[in-house]
Amino acid sequence: MFFSRSMFHLMILMAFASLIAFAAVACGGAAEPEVIEKEVIVTKEVEVEVVKEVIVEKEVIVVAEAATVPLLSKARDNGLSVGFVQENPFGYINDKGECTGTDIEVTREAARRMGIEDILCVHIAWEGMLPATLSGRVDMIPVGMPSDAAKCEVLLFTDPYQTMGIAALVKAGNPKNIHSYEDFVDSDLILAGSLGALELIIAREDYGVPEERALGFGEQSQAVEAVKTGRADAALYTTNFVARYVLEQGDGPLGQAEPFVSPQYFNAGHMFRHEDAQFVAQWNDILYDMKVDGTIKRIFDDFEMAPESLLGTEVSSEQCCDDSIGMNYGCLPD
Description:
43% of the residues lie in helices and 16% in strands. It has 334 residues and is α/β, with parallel strands linked by helices.
Protein backbone atom coordinates (compact mmCIF):
# COMPACT_ATOMS: atom_id res chain seq x y z
CA MET A 1 0.00 0.00 0.00
CA PHE A 2 1.34 3.46 -0.91
CA PHE A 3 1.25 6.25 1.68
CA SER A 4 1.97 9.92 1.11
CA ARG A 5 4.70 11.40 3.24
CA SER A 6 2.21 13.44 5.30
CA MET A 7 0.11 10.31 6.00
CA PHE A 8 3.23 8.38 6.92
CA HIS A 9 4.32 11.11 9.34
CA LEU A 10 0.85 11.09 10.90
CA MET A 11 1.09 7.35 11.40
CA ILE A 12 4.50 7.77 13.02
CA LEU A 13 3.18 10.41 15.38
CA MET A 14 0.30 8.15 16.36
CA ALA A 15 2.68 5.25 16.94
CA PHE A 16 4.97 7.53 18.94
CA ALA A 17 2.05 8.68 21.09
CA SER A 18 1.11 5.05 21.76
CA LEU A 19 4.67 4.22 22.77
CA ILE A 20 4.78 7.15 25.16
CA ALA A 21 1.47 6.09 26.71
CA PHE A 22 2.73 2.55 27.10
CA ALA A 23 5.99 3.70 28.66
CA ALA A 24 4.14 5.98 31.04
CA VAL A 25 1.94 3.14 32.24
CA ALA A 26 4.79 0.65 32.50
CA CYS A 27 7.30 2.93 34.18
CA GLY A 28 5.05 5.45 35.84
CA GLY A 29 6.96 8.36 34.33
CA ALA A 30 8.34 9.95 31.17
CA ALA A 31 9.34 7.93 28.12
CA GLU A 32 12.87 6.56 27.94
CA PRO A 33 15.22 7.87 25.19
CA GLU A 34 15.23 4.41 23.55
CA VAL A 35 11.61 4.94 22.50
CA ILE A 36 12.67 7.82 20.23
CA GLU A 37 15.45 5.73 18.76
CA LYS A 38 12.94 3.05 17.87
CA GLU A 39 10.86 5.64 16.10
CA VAL A 40 13.85 6.56 13.94
CA ILE A 41 14.32 2.91 13.01
CA VAL A 42 10.71 2.54 12.04
CA THR A 43 10.82 5.58 9.81
CA LYS A 44 14.26 4.80 8.39
CA GLU A 45 13.25 4.66 4.72
CA VAL A 46 11.34 7.95 4.75
CA GLU A 47 13.73 9.63 7.10
CA VAL A 48 16.64 8.85 4.80
CA GLU A 49 14.80 10.59 2.01
CA VAL A 50 13.96 13.54 4.27
CA VAL A 51 17.51 13.79 5.58
CA LYS A 52 18.87 13.89 2.04
CA GLU A 53 16.55 16.77 1.22
CA VAL A 54 17.56 18.64 4.35
CA ILE A 55 21.23 18.16 3.58
CA VAL A 56 20.75 19.50 0.07
CA GLU A 57 18.94 22.56 1.43
CA LYS A 58 21.70 23.21 3.95
CA GLU A 59 24.37 22.85 1.30
CA VAL A 60 22.63 25.37 -0.90
CA ILE A 61 22.43 27.83 2.00
CA VAL A 62 26.10 27.41 2.89
CA VAL A 63 27.21 27.95 -0.70
CA ALA A 64 25.03 31.04 -0.99
CA GLU A 65 26.53 32.53 2.18
CA ALA A 66 30.12 31.67 1.26
CA ALA A 67 29.90 32.84 -2.34
CA THR A 68 31.44 36.27 -2.81
CA VAL A 69 30.44 38.79 -5.44
CA PRO A 70 33.38 39.32 -7.82
CA LEU A 71 35.18 42.55 -6.98
CA LEU A 72 34.61 44.06 -10.41
CA SER A 73 30.82 43.62 -10.17
CA LYS A 74 30.79 44.83 -6.58
CA ALA A 75 32.87 47.90 -7.40
CA ARG A 76 30.79 48.79 -10.45
CA ASP A 77 27.63 48.65 -8.36
CA ASN A 78 28.83 50.20 -5.11
CA GLY A 79 32.18 51.84 -5.80
CA LEU A 80 35.73 50.72 -5.02
CA SER A 81 36.72 51.31 -1.39
CA VAL A 82 40.36 52.37 -0.99
CA GLY A 83 42.35 52.88 2.19
CA PHE A 84 44.73 55.79 2.60
CA VAL A 85 46.80 57.66 5.15
CA GLN A 86 46.90 61.43 5.19
CA GLU A 87 50.19 61.81 3.34
CA ASN A 88 50.63 64.50 0.72
CA PRO A 89 51.31 63.97 -2.19
CA PHE A 90 50.33 60.29 -2.23
CA GLY A 91 46.86 60.38 -0.69
CA TYR A 92 45.17 63.06 1.38
CA ILE A 93 42.09 65.21 1.89
CA ASN A 94 42.67 68.64 0.37
CA ASP A 95 41.33 72.01 1.53
CA LYS A 96 38.11 71.40 -0.42
CA GLY A 97 37.47 68.17 1.46
CA GLU A 98 38.30 66.06 -1.59
CA CYS A 99 40.24 62.82 -1.55
CA THR A 100 43.20 63.20 -3.90
CA GLY A 101 46.92 62.61 -4.34
CA THR A 102 49.13 60.82 -6.86
CA ASP A 103 48.12 57.29 -5.87
CA ILE A 104 44.48 58.23 -5.43
CA GLU A 105 44.34 59.77 -8.91
CA VAL A 106 46.12 56.80 -10.49
CA THR A 107 43.53 54.58 -8.79
CA ARG A 108 40.65 56.80 -9.91
CA GLU A 109 41.76 56.66 -13.55
CA ALA A 110 42.38 52.90 -13.50
CA ALA A 111 38.94 52.41 -11.97
CA ARG A 112 37.34 54.58 -14.65
CA ARG A 113 38.93 52.45 -17.37
CA MET A 114 37.42 49.36 -15.76
CA GLY A 115 33.94 50.88 -15.73
CA ILE A 116 33.97 51.78 -12.02
CA GLU A 117 32.41 55.18 -11.48
CA ASP A 118 33.23 55.84 -7.83
CA ILE A 119 36.11 55.27 -5.45
CA LEU A 120 35.35 55.54 -1.75
CA CYS A 121 38.27 56.81 0.35
CA VAL A 122 38.63 55.31 3.84
CA HIS A 123 41.15 56.98 6.16
CA ILE A 124 43.21 54.35 8.03
CA ALA A 125 46.24 54.59 10.30
CA TRP A 126 49.32 53.11 8.66
CA GLU A 127 49.52 50.05 10.94
CA GLY A 128 45.88 49.24 10.07
CA MET A 129 46.39 49.07 6.31
CA LEU A 130 47.02 45.34 5.98
CA PRO A 131 44.32 44.25 8.46
CA ALA A 132 41.76 46.51 6.78
CA THR A 133 42.50 44.97 3.40
CA LEU A 134 42.53 41.37 4.59
CA SER A 135 39.32 41.79 6.56
CA GLY A 136 37.49 43.32 3.61
CA ARG A 137 36.98 46.70 5.26
CA VAL A 138 38.52 48.15 2.10
CA ASP A 139 38.95 46.61 -1.34
CA MET A 140 42.51 47.76 -1.87
CA ILE A 141 45.34 49.99 -0.69
CA PRO A 142 46.77 52.31 -3.35
CA VAL A 143 48.96 54.57 -1.26
CA GLY A 144 52.72 54.01 -1.07
CA MET A 145 52.73 50.41 0.18
CA PRO A 146 56.09 48.89 -0.83
CA SER A 147 55.99 45.29 -1.92
CA ASP A 148 58.34 42.71 -0.47
CA ALA A 149 58.42 38.95 -0.10
CA ALA A 150 56.84 38.94 3.37
CA LYS A 151 53.84 41.02 2.33
CA CYS A 152 53.44 39.02 -0.86
CA GLU A 153 52.59 36.01 1.28
CA VAL A 154 49.37 37.64 2.43
CA LEU A 155 48.66 40.28 -0.21
CA LEU A 156 48.53 40.47 -3.98
CA PHE A 157 50.55 43.34 -5.44
CA THR A 158 50.37 44.98 -8.82
CA ASP A 159 53.54 45.80 -10.67
CA PRO A 160 54.99 48.91 -9.01
CA TYR A 161 54.98 52.28 -10.75
CA GLN A 162 56.96 54.44 -8.33
CA THR A 163 60.16 54.16 -6.34
CA MET A 164 61.54 56.19 -3.47
CA GLY A 165 64.21 56.16 -0.83
CA ILE A 166 64.18 57.33 2.80
CA ALA A 167 64.88 60.91 3.84
CA ALA A 168 65.11 62.74 7.16
CA LEU A 169 63.04 65.79 8.08
CA VAL A 170 65.04 67.77 10.62
CA LYS A 171 65.27 71.25 12.14
CA ALA A 172 66.29 73.83 9.52
CA GLY A 173 70.04 73.83 9.00
CA ASN A 174 70.32 70.27 10.38
CA PRO A 175 71.90 71.37 13.70
CA LYS A 176 72.29 67.74 14.91
CA ASN A 177 74.23 66.83 11.75
CA ILE A 178 72.02 63.86 10.87
CA HIS A 179 72.93 62.06 7.63
CA SER A 180 72.18 58.35 8.12
CA TYR A 181 70.58 55.74 10.35
CA GLU A 182 74.02 55.15 11.83
CA ASP A 183 73.80 58.52 13.55
CA PHE A 184 71.01 57.19 15.79
CA VAL A 185 72.80 54.03 16.92
CA ASP A 186 75.31 55.10 19.57
CA SER A 187 73.85 58.46 20.50
CA ASP A 188 70.99 60.11 22.33
CA LEU A 189 69.31 61.21 19.09
CA ILE A 190 65.61 60.43 18.75
CA LEU A 191 63.87 59.61 15.47
CA ALA A 192 60.18 59.48 14.66
CA GLY A 193 58.13 57.60 12.09
CA SER A 194 54.78 55.96 11.46
CA LEU A 195 53.71 52.94 13.48
CA GLY A 196 54.26 49.84 11.40
CA ALA A 197 56.13 51.68 8.63
CA LEU A 198 59.35 50.22 7.29
CA GLU A 199 61.30 53.38 8.12
CA LEU A 200 60.66 52.68 11.79
CA ILE A 201 61.11 48.91 11.51
CA ILE A 202 64.50 49.41 9.86
CA ALA A 203 65.63 51.64 12.73
CA ARG A 204 64.59 49.18 15.42
CA GLU A 205 65.36 45.83 13.81
CA ASP A 206 68.25 46.50 11.42
CA TYR A 207 70.09 49.17 13.41
CA GLY A 208 69.05 48.34 16.94
CA VAL A 209 67.73 51.77 17.85
CA PRO A 210 65.71 51.20 21.06
CA GLU A 211 61.99 51.94 21.03
CA GLU A 212 62.35 54.86 23.44
CA ARG A 213 64.49 56.56 20.78
CA ALA A 214 62.52 55.31 17.76
CA LEU A 215 59.08 56.77 18.34
CA GLY A 216 56.03 55.57 16.41
CA PHE A 217 53.02 57.73 15.58
CA GLY A 218 49.69 57.01 13.93
CA GLU A 219 49.93 60.00 11.58
CA GLN A 220 52.79 61.71 9.76
CA SER A 221 51.65 65.05 11.13
CA GLN A 222 52.28 63.82 14.68
CA ALA A 223 55.83 62.76 13.87
CA VAL A 224 56.49 66.09 12.16
CA GLU A 225 55.15 67.94 15.20
CA ALA A 226 57.50 65.91 17.41
CA VAL A 227 60.45 67.32 15.46
CA LYS A 228 59.07 70.86 15.64
CA THR A 229 58.67 70.68 19.42
CA GLY A 230 62.03 68.97 20.00
CA ARG A 231 60.57 65.68 21.18
CA ALA A 232 62.35 64.03 18.22
CA ASP A 233 65.41 65.07 16.24
CA ALA A 234 64.25 63.73 12.88
CA ALA A 235 61.19 62.27 11.20
CA LEU A 236 62.07 59.56 8.70
CA TYR A 237 59.81 59.19 5.69
CA THR A 238 60.04 58.72 1.94
CA THR A 239 62.09 61.19 -0.05
CA ASN A 240 58.94 62.30 -1.89
CA PHE A 241 57.08 63.11 1.32
CA VAL A 242 59.97 64.97 2.92
CA ALA A 243 60.78 66.97 -0.21
CA ARG A 244 57.11 67.90 -0.68
CA TYR A 245 56.75 68.96 2.94
CA VAL A 246 59.79 71.24 2.79
CA LEU A 247 58.61 72.74 -0.52
CA GLU A 248 55.12 73.52 0.75
CA GLN A 249 56.37 74.76 4.11
CA GLY A 250 58.45 77.45 2.47
CA ASP A 251 60.67 79.40 4.87
CA GLY A 252 59.76 77.31 7.88
CA PRO A 253 61.35 75.64 10.88
CA LEU A 254 62.12 72.29 9.22
CA GLY A 255 64.35 71.15 6.41
CA GLN A 256 65.58 68.03 4.63
CA ALA A 257 68.82 66.47 5.85
CA GLU A 258 71.19 66.48 2.87
CA PRO A 259 72.78 64.17 2.13
CA PHE A 260 70.99 61.29 3.84
CA VAL A 261 72.04 57.70 3.11
CA SER A 262 68.97 55.59 2.41
CA PRO A 263 69.46 51.93 3.33
CA GLN A 264 66.31 50.86 1.47
CA TYR A 265 64.39 51.85 -1.60
CA PHE A 266 60.69 51.16 -1.94
CA ASN A 267 58.92 50.21 -5.12
CA ALA A 268 55.23 50.76 -4.59
CA GLY A 269 52.11 49.79 -6.45
CA HIS A 270 48.63 48.78 -5.31
CA MET A 271 47.72 45.89 -3.04
CA PHE A 272 44.68 43.61 -3.00
CA ARG A 273 43.54 40.34 -1.47
CA HIS A 274 44.72 37.14 -3.18
CA GLU A 275 41.10 36.13 -3.73
CA ASP A 276 40.72 39.06 -6.14
CA ALA A 277 43.39 37.75 -8.51
CA GLN A 278 41.17 37.94 -11.60
CA PHE A 279 40.40 41.61 -10.91
CA VAL A 280 44.07 42.37 -10.20
CA ALA A 281 45.17 40.84 -13.50
CA GLN A 282 42.92 43.28 -15.38
CA TRP A 283 43.93 46.15 -13.11
CA ASN A 284 47.61 45.40 -13.72
CA ASP A 285 47.09 45.50 -17.49
CA ILE A 286 45.52 48.92 -17.14
CA LEU A 287 48.39 50.23 -15.00
CA TYR A 288 50.76 48.98 -17.71
CA ASP A 289 48.80 50.90 -20.35
CA MET A 290 48.83 54.01 -18.14
CA LYS A 291 52.62 53.80 -17.93
CA VAL A 292 52.99 53.40 -21.68
CA ASP A 293 50.53 56.14 -22.69
CA GLY A 294 52.00 58.63 -20.19
CA THR A 295 48.95 58.92 -17.93
CA ILE A 296 50.81 58.15 -14.71
CA LYS A 297 53.56 60.60 -15.63
CA ARG A 298 50.98 63.33 -16.26
CA ILE A 299 49.44 62.65 -12.83
CA PHE A 300 52.88 62.82 -11.21
CA ASP A 301 53.57 66.09 -13.04
CA ASP A 302 50.31 67.56 -11.75
CA PHE A 303 51.53 66.94 -8.19
CA GLU A 304 55.10 68.07 -8.96
CA MET A 305 56.53 64.66 -8.18
CA ALA A 306 60.18 64.10 -9.00
CA PRO A 307 60.37 62.40 -12.43
CA GLU A 308 63.03 59.97 -11.17
CA SER A 309 60.46 58.46 -8.79
CA LEU A 310 58.43 57.14 -11.73
CA LEU A 311 59.03 53.52 -12.77
CA GLY A 312 58.58 52.17 -16.25
CA THR A 313 57.45 48.73 -17.36
CA GLU A 314 60.70 46.94 -16.52
CA VAL A 315 59.84 46.11 -12.89
CA SER A 316 57.32 43.40 -12.03
CA SER A 317 55.60 42.27 -8.86
CA GLU A 318 57.31 38.89 -9.31
CA GLN A 319 60.68 40.59 -8.89
CA CYS A 320 59.50 42.44 -5.80
CA CYS A 321 58.20 39.22 -4.25
CA ASP A 322 61.37 37.23 -4.93
CA ASP A 323 63.82 37.19 -2.03
CA SER A 324 66.56 35.75 -4.20
CA ILE A 325 66.98 38.91 -6.27
CA GLY A 326 68.59 40.93 -3.47
CA MET A 327 65.70 43.29 -3.49
CA ASN A 328 66.88 46.14 -1.30
CA TYR A 329 63.14 46.80 -1.21
CA GLY A 330 63.57 48.24 -4.66
CA CYS A 331 63.19 45.06 -6.71
CA LEU A 332 66.09 46.26 -8.85
CA PRO A 333 69.74 45.22 -8.99
CA ASP A 334 71.89 47.14 -6.47
